[in-house]
Every structure is written in structure tokens, then in C-alpha cells.
UniProtKB/TrEMBL annotation:
Name of a matching Pfam family: HTH_26
Span of domain HTH cro/C1-type: 5-47
Organism domain of life: Bacteria
Protein name in the entry: Transcriptional regulator Cro/CI family
InterPro entries for the chain: Cro/C1-type_HTH, Lambda_DNA-bd_dom_sf
Length: 58
């Protein structure tokens, strides 16, 4: 599925989907995550991963 098609189905802009896709988002609404998973037929864990922030102490 093309990004512009997914963005339209989810109800967000292509720019916002790009921010999510490239890992630059600081947050994601659960309703957005739910819609993405619905249209991609996946689970949140299939598209998310934990990465410590650069400011987080190690």
C-alpha cells in the first residue's frame, strides 16, 4: 500500500505519516495507531519499537 493511500484511510496527512514512518514523531495518538494497524492488518508491536531517547540517562 502506498503511503498516500494509507494516510487517507487513516485520516492523517502524508507529512504526518512520514514523520511517524521515519521515527521522528514524539508521540502517536492511540486512535491513529489503531487505524494504521487496522488498515495494515497488523499489531502495534509489528510497527513500533522502543528506543531510548538521547536525553534519557543510561
Amino acid at each position: 500500500m502506498r503511503s498516500n493511500e494509507l494516510a487517507k484511510l487513516v485520516g492523517i496527512t502524508e507529512q504526518n505519516l512520514s514523520v511517524l514512518k521515519n521515527g521522528r514523531a514524539k508521540a502517536v495518538k492511540l486512535v491513529t495507531l489503531e487505524a494504521i494497524c487496522k488498515h495494515l492488518d497488523c499489531q502495534p508491536g509489528d510497527i513500533l519499537e522502543y528506543a531510548p531517547s538521547e536525553t534519557e540517562p543510561q
